[in-house]
Design goal:
Blueprint lengths: L1 H15 L7 H14 L6 H10 L3 H18 L5 H17 L5 H22 L2 H15 L3 H19 L11 H13 L1 H17 L8 H18 L10 H8 L13 H4 L2 H14 L3 H14 L10 H25 L4 H17 L2 H4 L4 H25 L4 H22 L6 H18 L26 H4 L1 H13 L1 H28 L7 H21 L12 H9 L6 H8 L17 H21 L8 H17 L13 H7 L4 H20 L4 H14 L3 H8 L2 H11 L8 H14 L6 H23 L4 H4 L3 H17 L7 H17 L4 H17 L6 H22 L9 H20 L20 H12 L5 H4 L2 H17 L1 H5 L3 H16 L4 H21 L5 H6 L1 H11 L8 H14 L1 H13 L4 H15 L8 H22 L3
Helix pairs in contact: 1-2, 3-4, 4-6, 5-6, 6-8, 7-8, 7-10, 8-11, 10-11, 10-14, 11-15, 14-15, 14-16, 15-17, 16-19, 17-20, 19-20, 19-21, 20-23, 21-23, 23-25, 24-25, 24-28, 25-29, 27-28, 27-30, 28-29, 28-31, 29-32, 31-32, 31-34, 32-35, 35-38, 36-38, 36-39, 38-40, 39-40, 39-41, 40-42, 41-43, ...
Length: 1126
């Protein structure tokens, strides 16, 4: 034994030595010693000797680990006295060696926890209770080191019982893990909690500033233990394993103890203890963190202990009273610190979630009033604190997060606003809304930059824009603003009109001084306008993702309530006078508030448009330009061309200004098209602004009602002329496609087929002709590498991709172009951007229009697609490149080709083409085309390329889909393709390392084996090709080389393989059993294999697969411990 210890100590010195002090051979030999050590059988005496005699911490750590592995491996052969003796020894060891390093001690107490848990299966926790009594005595005896050891043991025990799904390495089935966890919850977890609470109550009286180090450490351990109990995943119902894993992965679960906890957890003194304790320890940030987490968890108490309304109200009242006392004391002490702000906001958020306003409103009205007042004050306080601290300050981010949590609470309040006194919602909404506006305006109206920071008016490419970064915050502020819509709209209108007036003056000042740069004053002004637009856009419109955009009821109510004071004609004049201030229109005070706001934004857009046309574009702000376009787009989606039938009551002012087929709508569309053209021509150097402008155009053409109005506008003709004459210059790819998509979609609004064809010819034919003029040049093969020609080709390809977003009518236009593109691909195969666009066009065509094509057109698209794949493969087979980007470019190309094959395959199950008796039937299926294409592509799919997860996933999705639809075609593949396919499946199972890919491989093998079994095609070549997978799966499973989450898929596949290859399975089992040198292990393995398939017929039916999977879970637990040692 001493020799073994000395070898291990020497090996540990080598492993822990710096790299320059030992050779690679020495390190490898040292690793081998430890690997061999971990395989030692019956290691307990050896490990005890090492623990007693060695001083090397790493060796002690490894010895403890070997005890753990030995216990799992040999548990069934150990007697109860042996196990208890070992647990007693380990407990005595850590007590007698208080100076052990923390990592060695934690390893040993983890082994103790495993023993305790494993024993509790048989003795129902009797031994565990004895250990807990000893541990509680250790903590209570006053010796600091013993207290730390006791807390470590409790922590290890709780960690071992905490999860069930991921605790499979202690030789227990999942169901047993779950059972012992429930047993622990009902008995000893409660005892641990009671002990911690009692200890904290005693220690709380001893806390004085500054806190003594020993007391600080003990408090930290006890509060952390209590936090662990309060964060425990109590699962009180029998759920499937997958659902339980979801619950257990929750990092912030609610507190849902069982009914047996009722008397303990509802004790009012517990809440009081933690609020009081927090005040005493708040000077220590680590203690503060854990105490706040305990309070946050207590605010989420729910479940079976809170079934009665009276109980919930009593608990809620007690919590809120203590919370208000804490806030009062914190203000008395000076301020709420950032971490406390975050904690308090989380408490309020959780209270609103678990004690909704409909319940909250039933507590004592005095307490409720004080609480609601504090919610409002804290919201404003956190908002101001975040603003004043500065954007780069760590404390500012905490206050900002706290403010966001407060707004989440306000979402709940606004949802149940009828439950609260009406004056509360209105007063609080005004206060919060005003504060938010103030925090985002510069002095003198606001406090932005009060800390001396300056605004950056330019949008950085890598920076998330404000409207996205603060999307949820702005939406909530908008909802609060709508609560008092008249007040909010009045403030925002005044602020925007004031900034508009100042903007004229500041621009003129800079122009008169000959300056072309934005100075600090104009920059602050632009930042003000930017935030006013963001807030106003969220007040007048709702953020709708995929839903019909309706005018918010509060805004409609505002317009209706002010109808008696509104002059519709004046409102229209204000709207239609973008070149002059609203105050210049006689009687402008009688303008509808919504129309006045929209009119002011139009005025802002006009100022920008005139400035750029006059050559002063450098004095405009790209950020504000984007915000203007964003605001107008929201307005267009919600208000323009109003559908009156959507509303029970509607404002005549809004209908007159923005209704269907009105003069107001016609004028607005022309004005907006002029602004869009201005942005695309004069401000095209700003990519994000161009993209936003194209999105505005797309919203204008969304729907036939707006489309019919646009067809009548002069602006559309200008836009088509600009696009077809290539005068818009280079635009970002997404903007180019969006523009062409918008122009094509307008045609959908045409009343009849002939007018549609006429319109589309006007848009599409010029592009087709110009593209043809380039590629049909006699000298094209000599000039195609000219930069201008290449850029023109790229622009036309982008346009064609955009056109394919419509349906069948466009295929007649597209088909000859696709044929030309196959030839173009052969010529320009060395230009990756051109190749990628050609492949993408084929991909989009197959995805968007294939399902609408008749048999003739379908065959044409099949043929051109296969020709495209063939040409690509001819030019890339065997191709080598030293450029770093080459592999990534080929990855993108192959990904598009795989998507193309998948899209072509969809024709066989999604065919929406009208029946055409004159169209000839074709015997070529999409699966034939897909498999033919796969045969071409597969030689290009190298292992390095398959390491790209998205490409690999798309490849296996495609082959699995083909197999699921046409397994008979897979079973008759030609030998080369079959060999490639089998090789790729092996890679997917063993090398790729992506769970989704592994699952798809399992699905493929299951489907194909079931087909072969049903159709009795044991003589096919694919049948023999699949046989090695039986051994592969058994090796993967038994050697633990797959994720535990994949075991269900693996077991089902293994069962189907066993059904197909029963003789091979029996041979493998016989080999594994005979390979065991230990006779006892041989008998255990034979019994495990016998139980695995007992009473399960090998028919591959689903019911039998499920039964086999249940048996397999038990089999894995039984054999993994002794069959192979990791």
């Amino acid at each position: 034994m001493d020799q073994a210890r000395q070898e291990l100590e020497t090996a540990s010195q080598i492993l822990l030595a710096p790299p320059n002090m030992v050779s690679a051979t020495e390190r490898s030999n040292a690793e081998s010693i430890f690997l061999q050590f971990r395989k030692t059988k019956s290691p307990f005496q050896l490990c005890k000797h090492i623990l007693e005699s060695s001083q090397a911490e790493y060796v002690l750590f490894e010895a403890a680990g070997l005890i753990k592995e030995g216990l799992i491996r040999e548990w069934s052969s150990l007697g109860e006295p042996d196990v208890k003796g070992l647990r007693t020894y380990l407990l005595r060891y850590v007590i007698e060696h208080p100076n052990l390093s923390s990592y060695a001690r934690e390893r040993i107490v983890q082994v103790m926890a495993i023993i305790i848990k494993r024993q509790s299966v048989d003795d129902l926790g009797e031994d565990r209770r004895m250990v807990l009594q000893e541990v509680q005595q250790l903590i209570s005896n006053g010796n600091m080191q013993m207290q730390m050891i006791g807390c470590s043991i409790l922590s290890a025990m709780m960690q071992e019982y905490a999860t069930t799904v991921k605790s499979s390495d202690v030789g227990l089935a999942w169901e047993i893990h779950f059972r012992v966890k429930k047993q622990f919850e009902l008995t000893d977890l409660k005892s641990i909690f009671q002990f911690c609470i009692q200890a904290l109550q005693e220690l709380s009286n001893r806390v004085q500033q500054p806190i003594e180090p020993d007391l600080n450490n003990l408090l930290l351990r006890l509060i952390s233990l209590t936090e662990s109990v309060l964060s425990w995943n109590f699962i009180n119902v029998h759920l499937p394993k997958k659902l339980i894993s979801v619950f257990e992965s929750d990092q912030n679960p609610s507190l849902r103890p069982g009914i047996t906890w009722k008397d303990i957890i509802l004790d009012p003194s517990i809440i009081q203890l933690f609020f009081n304790l927090h005040l005493k320890i708040r000077s220590d940030s680590e203690l503060t963190h854990h105490s706040l987490n305990c309070l946050i968890q207590l605010s989420s108490l729910s479940g079976s202990v809170m079934t009665k309304k009276e109980t919930r109200l009593e608990y809620l009242t007690n919590y809120i009273k203590e919370f208000l006392t804490l806030l009062h004391n914190l203000k008395e002490l000076g301020s709420i610190r950032p971490m406390e702000a975050l904690g308090c906001s989380n408490m309020i958020r959780r209270l609103m979630l678990f004690f909704p306003p409909c319940l909250l409103n039933n507590i004592d009205q005095g307490v409720l009033g004080a609480y609601l007042k504090q919610i409002t004050e804290l919201t404003c306080h956190f908002m101001k604190a975040a603003t004043l601290k500065g954007a780069l300050d760590d404390e500012a981010s905490m206050y900002e997060e706290a403010f966001e949590h407060m707004l989440e609470a306000w979402v709940s309040i606004l949802h149940y606003f009828q439950s609260f006194p009406p004056e509360f919602c209105q007063q609080s909404s005004v206060e919060i809304f005003n504060t938010y506006v103030q925090c985002n305006l510069a002095a003198p109206d606001g406090i932005r930059n009060a800390n001396g920071e300056t605004d950056d008016i330019n949008i950085e490419d890598t920076e998330e824009i404000d409207r996205n970064r603060y999307k949820e915050t702005l939406a909530t502020i908008g909802a609060l603003g709508r609560e008092t819509a008249a007040h909010s709209m009045n403030i925002l209108t005044q602020l925007l009109e004031n900034r508009l007036s100042r903007l004229h003056g500041q621009m003129q000042r800079l122009i008169s001084h000959g300056s072309t740069d934005i100075d600090r004053v104009l920059g602050d002004l632009y930042e003000d306008i930017h935030w006013i637009l963001l807030i106003a856009g969220n007040v007048i419109c709702l953020d709708t993702d995929g839903e019909a955009a309706l005018i918010p009821s509060d805004m409609m109510r505002l317009s209706l309530e002010q109808a008696t004071q509104v002059n519709v004609e004046v409102s229209l004049r204000v709207l239609a006078s973008p070149g002059q201030p609203s105050s210049d229109v006689p009687g402008y005070e009688a303008t509808d508030p919504i129309i006045r706001m929209v009119g002011n934004v139009f005025k802002l857009a006009e100022v920008e448009k005139r400035a750029t046309e006059a050559g002063f574009g450098s004095l405009t702000s790209p950020e504000v330009s984007s915000s203007i376009v964003w605001f107008i787009r929201r307005y267009v989606v919600t208000y323009l061309s109003i559908h009156e039938t959507y509303y029970s009551e509607i404002s005549m002012a809004l209908v007159t200004a923005f209704g269907e087929n009105t003069e107001g709508t016609a004028w607005t569309i022309n004005f907006l098209l002029d602004k869009i053209i201005s942005n695309l021509t004069m401000l095209c150097s700003e990519p994000k602004l161009v993209e936003d402008t194209v999105l505005l155009l797309l919203s204008l053409v969304d729907g036939k009602d707006k489309g019919r109005q646009i067809l009548k506008s002069e602006g559309l003709l200008k836009l088509i002329e600009l696009e077809t004459s290539d005068r818009l210059g280079s635009m970002p790819s997404t903007a180019q496609r969006g523009l062409l998509k918008a122009l094509v979609l307008v045609g959908s609004a045409c009343e009849d087929h002939s007018s549609k064809e006429q319109y589309w010819n006007r848009v599409l034919v010029p592009l087709k002709e110009k593209f043809g003029q380039i590629i049909q040049r006699p000298d094209f093969k000599q000039v195609y590498n000219d930069e201008k020609i290449r850029q023109a080709i790229i622009r036309y390809l982008e346009s064609f991709i955009a056109h394919v977003t419509t349906v069948q009518q466009i295929f007649g236009f597209l088909h000859p172009i696709l044929g030309n593109l196959v030839e173009l691909l052969g010529v320009m195969h060395n230009y990756p951007n051109v190749v990628e666009l050609i492949l993408e066009l084929f991909c989009v065509a197959a995805r968007k229009i294939l399902c609408y094509l008749n048999a003739t057109d379908t065959k044409n698209l099949y043929q051109t697609s296969v020709d495209c794949i063939q040409v690509y493969a001819n030019h890339n087979r065997g191709k080598r490149s030293v450029e770093r980007e080459a592999e990534e470019e080929q990855f993108r190309d192959l990904l598009l080709l795989m998507e193309l094959l998948t899209n072509l395959l969809s024709k066989d199950f999604i065919d929406l083409a009208p029946h055409d008796p004159s169209s000839p039937e074709t015997d070529v299926t999409a699966a034939d085309v897909c498999l033919y294409g796969m045969n071409i592509i597969m030689p290009l799919m190298t292992l390095e390329l398959l390491k790209f997860p998205s490409l690999c996933l798309q490849y296996f999705k495609t082959v699995t889909l083909v197999c699921e639809i046409y397994p008979e075609k897979i079973s008759t593949l030609n030998p080369d393709l079959q060999q490639n396919l089998i090789r790729s499946l092996e890679l997917g199972l063993t090398t790729i390392g992506v769970d989704n890919v592994f699952t798809l491989c399992c699905d493929f093998i299951q489907v194909l084996c079931c087909y072969l079994l049903r159709s009795k095609k044991q003589d096919s070549s694919i049948f023999e090709a699949l046989r090695p997978f039986l051994k592969l799966y058994m090796d993967l499973i038994l050697s633990q080389n797959i994720n535990s989450d994949l075991i269900p898929h693996s077991s089902s596949t293994l069962y189907v393989l066993i059904c197909c290859y029963q003789n091979t399975y029996h041979e493998l089992v016989h080999f594994l059993i005979n390979a065991q040198e230990d006779l006892q292990n041989r008998d255990r393995l034979a019994a495990a294999f016998r139980d695995l398939t007992e009473n399960i017929p090998f028919t591959a039916e689903r019911i039998n697969r499920i039964r086999f999977r249940d048996n397999f879970d038990k089999f894995i637990v039984q054999v993994r411990g002794f069959l192979l040692v990791k």
